[in-house]
Amino acid sequence: MKSAFRMMALASILLGISLLAGCSKEPVVEAPDYGDRRPVILISIDSLRADHTTPYGYRPHFSPEEATMPWLQSMAEEGVVFENTSSVSSWTLPSHMSLLSGMHPIEHGVRSRRWSLSPKVELLAEPFQAAGYHTAGFFSAPFLHPVWGFSRGFDVYLPGPKYLGTLEAAEALSANRKSDTVDDLHSSSHTDNRTAEQVLDHALTWLEQDDNYREPFFLFLHLWDPHYDYFPPQDYRERFLPPSEGQVIGDELMDLERELSEQELLELRALYDAEIRYTDDQLARLWTQLEAWGIEDAVIIAVTSDHGDEFLEHGTRGHHLTLYEEVMHVPMVLRAPDLAPAGNRVQATVSNIDLAPTLLELAGLPAWPDRTGRSLAPLWTGAEMADRQVPMDLVRPALKIELRGYRHGDLKTIIDSFARNLQVFDLSQDPTEQQPRMAELADKDDAASVEALEFFLRHRATPFPPGKVKESKAMTSALSELGYTED
């Protein structure tokens, strides 16, 4: 674990901790010629529900004239929108491991924070790096740290927000049995309300440094602000939650001892919307720079999320507890001029594990063999029209939670291993999942149940045994403050 953080520290030195005040906005004389190697940017926005984004038809409650994601809407109009994308898990670590590997959690084995990725599993940055691309990743949540294996294939892999630098310091101190001296530094993760800005500053600096943008590059950005608690910059708060309405502070959602009224839930959703719009505006800043360099139509951009947040739709708050649509239905938008048609909206059920294989195909790189994730290109070319089988997974043994979800078209099944039963939902008739059809695991007469069980019987164990993560007290403390108590 210490070596992983040393790597981050070295990368910080190479990149330069003091960020440029701002990248030049003057257009270059001549745009770069990338040949047949198109640059690729993959963006994951943590805790982003599809039904709170503009491309999916959302309008804020208190300020319907405001759009939560106007920049993403422009990407949707110029690219492909996947209407029915499910994440593979309802929390950050396994979902991002799946996003970057094209595997569902049972395949790669990192279903808990106790496990790190097997060295035998190649992540998305590695084939880009092997093909001669410059590669960089900038993240903004503890569960994207290199200790779980995320840094593979990146020339530079760095945290954006300052509080993650604090985690790095905490690890070093805890190794010398002095972690108690930095305990008070970890609460910053909740209240740091400009993490997207920090991540984008790092990314723009890296792109401009040594003219990295003039060579083929793969850039991964992880943005954190929509994750609870909801403390958007003040001007965004006022746009989405007028002072005459707003009584909540922004940290009430995860105060489990507090009973929330309908009005308070509406206000928390408004602050969530404000965080989303702030994040979208930061991505627009990146886009402005790509335009200034004249490379916006050369770059392939994909935007998705790892999960959403729950606002008591099924009696629970936040995420990491259920596999219902409010946490599993995520946005996925892909813009790839000349490769993917503009304005296309794919209705088929898909998973965000299909995104990495898609980016490999669009970049002309070899496909991964024998992974559940498959390129999405056949769905917009018309070569494939059918709904895909979509797996979901959540494991929390201490809370007696072991859920496996399966969606194929409008039918969705949630298997509860502890209760030994399953629920089947017809989302065409019951989109909010309030009327399940219950069945026992042994029920062989329910076709949807049988199909789900057969799928998971084919994927019962990982062929790549993960490694064990040794977590320090400082890391445990920091993650617990984010609501991730150890199972």
Oligomer: single chain
CATH topology: Alkaline Phosphatase, subunit A
Mean of pLDDT: 86
SSE-based structural type: alpha/beta
Extended strand count? 17
CATH superfamily: Alkaline Phosphatase, subunit A
| Total domain units | 1
Describe this structure in words.
This protein has 487 residues and is of the alpha/beta class. It has a single domain (2-23, 36-389), classed as Alkaline Phosphatase, subunit A (3-Layer(aba) Sandwich), CATH 3.40.720.10. It contains 15 helices and 17 strands. Strands 5-4-6-1-7-10-2-11 form an eight-stranded mixed β-sheet, with helices on both faces. A hairpin with a 5-residue loop joins strand 8 and strand 9. The two termini are 20 Å apart.
Task: Give the secondary structure arrangement, pairings included.
Blueprint: H1 2-15, E1 40-45, H2 70-77, E2 80-86, H3 92-101, H4 105-108, E3 115-116, H5 125-130, E4 134-139, E5 156-159, H6 162-175, H7 188-191, H8 195-208, E6 217-223, H9 234-240, H10 262-293, E7 300-304, E8 310-311, E9 317-318, H11 325-328, E10 332-335, E11 344-351, H12 355-362, H13 377-381, E12 390-396, E13 401-408, E14 411-416, E15 421-426, E16 437-440, H14 447-457, E17 467-468, H15 473-481
Parallel strand pairs: 1-6, 1-7, 2-11, 4-5, 4-6
Antiparallel strand pairs: 2-10, 3-17, 7-10, 8-9, 12-13, 13-14, 14-15, 15-16
Helix pairs in contact: 1-6, 6-15, 8-10, 9-10
